[in-house]
């Protein structure tokens, strides 16, 4: 299975701090994506990193990918209370039209 | 711009009753379409995906079925619901041929009693 596994399962920080979430997967991938889900809502795509990329930035988000370790990390800098949500990694392997999701990290940012 | 609509948002059904969840996409053509299920506090499980009208791939054996009667319409059905069918169902679409970024609907919460 290519399923990603996020770590930690839950993370609680204070506003202004940085939040780091990790994702590990098992088989080779074409790309790895991070999504955000507010409670009871659909998922929203945050960022995609291809297998030949090592780092990518988007606003306050920084994603790294280490294909030798089959792992990725998502860093949210200067967190805000509005960043409170669940964050999922998803991997795309042999067929780009099929994504496999992990169980997610629940991030709580306390004001 | 593209939008995705999913309904109903909330559904409470008795065991053994039928189910129909509907999803439509606007503003794009030939999308890949997906149904995922999310159990409480868990990740997303891919149930079905479709790369074209009438082309449905099932990922998990279950008493659910999916149909794609039109290019931008995806329907999830069951003839007889089980308690274990309770969950949060998410429809999503992606642009065919690209990197696989998914665009999700707002979800349908199903409670089977």
> What's the count of strands of chain A?
11
* Element pattern of chain A in H and E: EEEEEEEEEEE
The overall average pLDDT of chain A, rounded, is 92
- Beta-strand fraction estimate of chain A: over 45%
Major sheet attributes of chain A: 6 strands, mixed
Mean pLDDT of chain B, to the nearest integer, reads: 92
Shape, principal axes of CA atoms of chain B: globular
Considering DSSP H and I runs of 4 or more, what fraction of the residues of chain A is helical?
Answer: under 10%
Measured by residues with Cβ under 8 Å of the partner chain's Cβ, the largest interface is: A-B, 25 and 26 residues
How many distinct helices of chain A? 0
**Radius of gyration of chain B, Cα only, in angstroms?**
13 Å
Helical residue percent band of chain B:
under 10%
In terms of quaternary structure, the protein is heterodimer
Largest sheet of chain B: 7 strands, mixed
Structure description:
The complex is a heterodimer of chains A (111) and B (113). Chain A is mostly beta strands and 111 residues long. Chain A has strands at 5-7, 10-14, 19-24, 31-37, 43-50, 55-58, 61-66, 71-76, 85-92, 99-101, 105-110. With 113 residues, chain B is mainly β. At the A-B interface, strand 4, strand 5, strand 9 and strand 10 of A face strand 5, strand 9 and strand 10 of B.
Key structural traits:
heterodimer, A: 111 residues, mainly beta, six-stranded mixed sheet, 0% helix, B: 113 residues, seven-stranded mixed sheet, 58% strand, globular
């Amino acid at each position: 299975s290519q399923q990603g596994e996020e770590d930690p399962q839950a993370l609680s920080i204070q506003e202004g701090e940085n939040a780091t979430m990790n994702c590990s997967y098992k088989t080779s991938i074409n790309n790895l994506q991070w999504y955000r889900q507010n409670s009871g809502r659909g998922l929203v795509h945050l960022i995609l990193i291809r297998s030949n990329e090592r780092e990518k930035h988007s606003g306050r988000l920084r994603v790294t990918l280490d294909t030798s370790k089959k792992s990725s990390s998502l860093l949210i800098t200067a967190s805000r209370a509005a960043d409170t949500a669940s964050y999922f990694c998803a991997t795309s392997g042999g067929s780009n039209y099929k994504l496999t999701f992990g169980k997610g990290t629940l991030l709580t940012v306390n004001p | 711009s593209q939008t995705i609509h999913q309904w109903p948002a909330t559904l409470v059904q008795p065991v053994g009753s039928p189910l129909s969840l509907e999803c439509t996409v606007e503003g794009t053509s030939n999308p890949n379409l997906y149904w995922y299920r999310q159990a409480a506090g868990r990740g997303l499980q891919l149930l079905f995906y479709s790369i074209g009208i009438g082309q449905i791939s099932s990922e998990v054996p279950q008493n659910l079925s999916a149909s794609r009667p039109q290019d931008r319409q995806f329907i999830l059905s069951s003839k007889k619901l089980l308690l274990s069918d309770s969950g949060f169902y998410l429809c999503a679409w992606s642009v065919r041929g690209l990197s696989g970024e998914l665009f999700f609907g707002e979800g349908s919460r199903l409670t089977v009693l």
